[in-house]
Design goal:
This is ABC transporter related. About 35% of the residues lie in helices and about 25% in strands. With about 230 residues, the chain is an alpha/beta fold. The chain has two domains: about 160 residues, P-loop containing nucleotide triphosphate hydrolases (Rossmann fold), CATH 3.40.50; about 60 residues, no CATH class. The longest helix has 14 residues.
Length: about 230
């Protein structure tokens, strides 16, 4: 099976400050990946580099066997709240994405808008942080891409609706699509993941979640805490 993502010896630094280095891993199609790691280790930065929104300092990123370029970037679904026009209403954001992306499914977006209980007339700048995250999730999942990148999609969202959001992700994920979710809510989300990537300053550890449970006899959170404790 061909890798959908291959990261080779990736490094990112700002001046003398090294965010991470020597990061390498491969991801197969159709998987849901949890990207986890301590705060400040560059999870958002890594997603941006994979998505082609930020340049690495060293190393290479391959998407479907090709280095990420403008054409490849167009088929990667990544929506950041900072990318949205604050004066847009929810409805205007859906219209904008409908016009901008050929693979955007407007019917799916309107259905998700109802499921996520978003007011289409509400301006984005008036939305709570949780509702902004819901809108980003809606706009991301309404694209028919092969790779979905999600950065803390459950941040600021009330606990009682998190289960519904997890269900929505599973129901709307195309069978052959890959999703990478950066999160610190490992205990709540671990059942979603096929694999996890533990991001550290000088390496990335890719592990199969079923193997962690069957071989190590641990939950994903327990395994993660054990790994970072013994670094």
């Amino acid at each position: 099976m061909n890798d959908v993502i291959r990261v080779d010896n990736l490094m990112k630094k700002y001046g003398r400050n090294v965010v991470f280095k020597d990061i390498s891993f491969t991801i197969e199609p159709g998987r849901i990946i949890g990207l986890i790691g301590n705060n400040g280790l560059g999870k958002t930065t890594l997603l941006d580099i994979i998505g082609g929104y930020r340049k690495q300092s060293r190393g290479r990123v391959f998407y479907n066997g090709r280095e990420t370029n403008k054409k490849e970037k167009e088929s990667i679904a990544l929506v950041d709240p900072k990318q949205l026009f604050p004066f847009f209403t929810v409805s205007m954001a859906i219209d904008y994405f409908t016009d901008f992306f050929d693979d955007f499914d407007r019917k799916c977006a309107l259905r998700l808008c109802e499921q996520l209980k978003l007011d289409q007339k509400q301006k984005i700048q008036k939305l709570s942080k949780g509702n902004q995250e819901r809108l980003c999730l809606l706009l991301t999942l309404s694209r028919k891409g092969k790779l979905y990148l999600m950065d803390e999609p459950f941040a600021g969202i009330d606990p009682q609706i998190k289960y519904d959001l997890k269900k929505i992700i599973l129901e709307n994920k195309p069978e052959d699509a890959t999703i990478i979710i950066a999160t610190h809510l490992l205990k709540e989300l671990e059942f979603l993941f096929d694999e996890i990537i533990i991001l550290m300053k000088d390496k990335a550890i890719l592990r199969n979640c079923d193997e962690i449970r069957s071989i190590h006899k641990k939950s994903i959170e327990e395994y993660y805490l054990e790994v970072i404790t013994h670094v």
